[in-house]
Amino acid sequence: MIKLTPILMAVLYGLVLYRFSVWRTQRELDANSTELADPILKVLMDRMAKALDIDRIRVHIYEIEPVNGLAAPDGRIFITRGFFNKYRAGQVSSEEMASVIAHELGHVALGHSRRRMIDFSGQNAMRTALAMILNRFIPFIGPWIAGLLMSLVAARLSRADEFEADAYASALLVKAGIGTGPQKTLFQKLEKLTGARGAAVPAWLLSHPKSTQRIAAIEANESKWAAR
Predict the structure, then answer these.
(1) What pLDDT, on the 0 to 100 scale, is given for residue 128?
(2) Closest CA to 69 of 99, 41, 35, 49
(3) Which residues of the chain have pLDDT under 70?
């Protein structure tokens, strides 16, 4: 039992830290967001809502500049002000923005936020256990290696979530009569919109897949669906 104590403590720490992060995120979002009110986007969101057989899709604008979308742990969908400004400036079409909303709906529907609570806690426990073991054989750098290994695991899980949310979004966009074209064109311009330099980083180190991989996965799903 004594040997397991550090691992159990790590799991408990992970749960407490996650709960605190959820509380802090919800507080930040509540204080710095307003509901999206755009008539063109509303038409597209209503089409997606009809496809999902729900009354409406509610989206909020999060008042920060980085270009991003967010599915909060409580199930709310957010688009950043920076992303919305790109849309208003004509750099992103209404259909492309709808594809972002569909993607975030995928994260909510597939329970990614809830699952990450378990993943986060488990990764903390595994990091602690690995650090203890490796430190016996490789003093000082053992914990660093353990941290690196768990970061790679976390990135892989995150990439899997992104592919799943992309697939959900594709299916929803097709059902709503919007199609996957806007989804793919957005990915083609995403690095420029975000100012990312992801092309210089190996794909397996990224928490999001490369845009080319995401487009290829969407097209593979389209081929699979067409063959049915």
Answers:
(1) 59
(2) 99
(3) 1-19, 21-22, 113-157, 196-208
Rounded Cα distance, 60 and 33, in Å = 6
Structure tokens at 214: 């995401």
Rounded Cα distance, 100 and 36, in Å: 14
How many C-beta atoms lie closer than 10 Å to residue 170's C-beta? 24
Query: What's the domain range around 147?
Result: 5-16+29-226
Work out the angle at residue 159's Cα, subtended by the Cα atoms of residues 114 and 210, and round it to the nearest 5 degrees: 145
Query: Hey, how many other C-beta atoms are within 10 angstroms of the C-beta on 182?
Result: 21
Residue 22 lies in a domain: no
- Structure tokens that stand for 188 in this block: 């083609």
Pair 120, 151: CB distance under 8 Å: no
pLDDT at 94: 97
Would you state the pLDDT for residue 106? Answer: 94
DSSP state of 200: G
**Amino acid residing at 196:** A
Distance of CA 201 to the CA centre of its chain: 19
C-alpha–C-alpha distance, residues 29 and 23, integer Å = 10
pLDDT of residue 227: 78
User: Is residue 57 situated within a structural domain?
Assistant: yes
Pair 33, 78: CB distance under 8 Å:
yes
- The dihedral built from the CA positions of residue 42, 47, 52 and 55, taken in this order, carries a sign that is positive
75 part of a folded domain:
yes
pLDDT of res. 186: 96
Amino acid 23: pLDDT: 77
Structural domains counted in the chain? 1
**Strand extents, DSSP E, 45-188:** 59-62, 69-71, 77-80
